[in-house]
Write a sequence for this structure.
């Protein structure tokens, strides 16, 4: 999965947006970046220098929308050279630094939108009293094997001797997410971590009978990850409880994207557009609604805000 995702994001073909496989919030409207800029500005007020670090910036739209509203020292950690090139093109008039590793001593905010869901996961299945890991052969057949380190360490977290999974239930374990939250905590000297993504807290996460692994190809949801290898997106919901377990980060807020954007003032912006009433404003309004509608991004997406040494 690691290799397939690396290949997927390294392609010159546009993966995100109308011509790609899926939309992200920044594709819908610049308001998303504008409201994040407002949030960062509030947080930055007591600090002399407040650096923003974005993980996995895709086409760079969010960085663009944020920096249009407020200048911050801005770093992007992006693994895909193709995505980096797009970001550099879009952000050529802004002062952005691209990094390969999270530096130590950041005072500011490390944030991501749809980064954790793009990390590769392990898949486990309950068979009798034990959990097995699902492996894939070279010709894409699934085989089940005993858990190998470091996955067994997670067995306890799934409920000790009796995991709270039904017979045959599958679940994803995102070890990469655990590594990333550790790195984020180590990188941050003082400030905030924000993760925006679709996902659940632990109980809801383990209540999904078939797990949450899903593929996207040209805006269609596809269940089979063994077709169009490297050409369709593979994604899994985020278990936010795992991120909250990082001991040196304090959870300040966990809420839906809808409630978070309302708290940041999206309804006022929507009202201004409705009052303007011209066709451009009305089109923006329609797209913006998707950011907060429960059946669209509003409730599937969650926002986790954590802090360190505030
Ligand atoms: C689903 S896209 C999200 C893009 C963007 N944040 C947005 O909201 O449109 C995931 C992004 O994370 C990047 N990415 C995935 N794994 C990564 C890793 N291990 N290190 C750095 N970037 C990564 C991908 O190349 C891509 O830019």
């Amino acid at each position: 999965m690691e290799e397939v995702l690396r290949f997927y994001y390294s392609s010159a073909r546009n993966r995100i947006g109308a011509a790609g496989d899926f939309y992200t919030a920044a594709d819908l409207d610049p308001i998303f970046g504008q409201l994040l800029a407002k949030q960062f500005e509030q947080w930055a007020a007591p600090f002399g220098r407040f650096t923003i670090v974005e993980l996995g910036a895709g086409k760079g739209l969010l960085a663009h929308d944020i920096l249009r509203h407020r200048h911050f020292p801005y770093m992007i950690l992006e693994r895909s050279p193709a995505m980096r090139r797009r970001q550099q093109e879009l952000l050529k008039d802004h002062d952005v630094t691209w990094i390969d590793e999270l530096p130590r001593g950041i005072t500011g905010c490390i944030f991501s939108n749809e980064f954790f869901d793009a990390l590769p996961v392990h898949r486990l299945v309950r068979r009798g009293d034990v959990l097995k890991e699902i492996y894939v052969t070279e010709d894409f057949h699934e085989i089940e094997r005993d858990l190998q380190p470091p996955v067994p360490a997670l067995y306890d977290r799934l409920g000790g001797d009796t995991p709270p999974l039904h017979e045959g239930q599958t679940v994803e374990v995102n070890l990469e997410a655990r590594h990333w939250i550790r790195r984020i905590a180590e990188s941050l000297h003082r400030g905030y971590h924000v993760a925006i993504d679709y996902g659940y807290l632990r109980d809801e996460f383990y209540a999904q009978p078939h797990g949450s692994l899903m593929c996207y190809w040209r805006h269609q949801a596809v269940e089979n990850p063994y077709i169009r290898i490297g050409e369709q997106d593979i994604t899994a919901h985020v278990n936010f409880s795992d991120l909250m377990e990082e001991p040196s980060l304090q959870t300040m807020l966990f809420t839906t994207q809808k409630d978070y954007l309302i708290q940041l003032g999206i309804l006022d912006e929507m009202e201004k557009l409705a009052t303007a009433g011209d066709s451009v404003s009305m089109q923006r309004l329609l797209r913006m609604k998707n950011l907060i509608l429960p059946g669209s991004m509003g409730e599937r997406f969650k926002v986790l805000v954590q802090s360190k040494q505030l």
